[in-house]
Amino acid sequence: MPTQDWYLELTRPFWSPPAWLFGPVWTVLYAIIAVSFGTIFYKVITKEIPWIIAVPFALNLVFNFAFTPIQFGLKNNLLASLDILLVVGTLMWALTLVWYRVPELRWVVYVNIPYLLWGTFATALQLTITYINT
């Protein structure tokens, strides 16, 4: 069964946003991620901040980019649920580290609030989809 047909056949909650909304939202979020995460990686490479600060940012990218292949390639809701929990968890870890360890870069925390909000919403959506389709 083609991926789009598989996803459309899943039971989704009434509050699930329309499919067309995901593209524009992620376009904006990836721009925010590119600038803010890029700044963190640059500061680590130039030794302006400790490398440990970049660890949750790197893990967040790995888990974020793994979601689509897991959800739509493997068509595995349970694994996708675990992955999206890791996306949000690593984001919270990353932002907490910046807030307390690199106060001069707190703007990174502020600009990632939309990512955190969308990620939290997407987590609730994915967990709900997984629950009602098992």
Task: Characterise this structure.
With 134 residues, this protein is mostly helical. The protein has one domain. It is 76% helix and 0% strand. The chain is elongated and about 50 Å long. The chain starts with a helix and ends with a helix. The mean pLDDT is 96.
Which features characterize this protein?
elongated, mainly alpha
Supply the number of helical segments.
6
**Can you give the mean pLDDT?**
96
User: How many DSSP-defined strands?
Assistant: 0
Spans where pLDDT lies below 50 across 5 or more residues: none
Cα radius of gyration in angstroms? 16 Å
- Percent of sequence in beta strands: under 5%
Overall body shape: elongated
**Category by helix and strand content:** mainly alpha
Main sheet properties: none
* Total of domains: 1
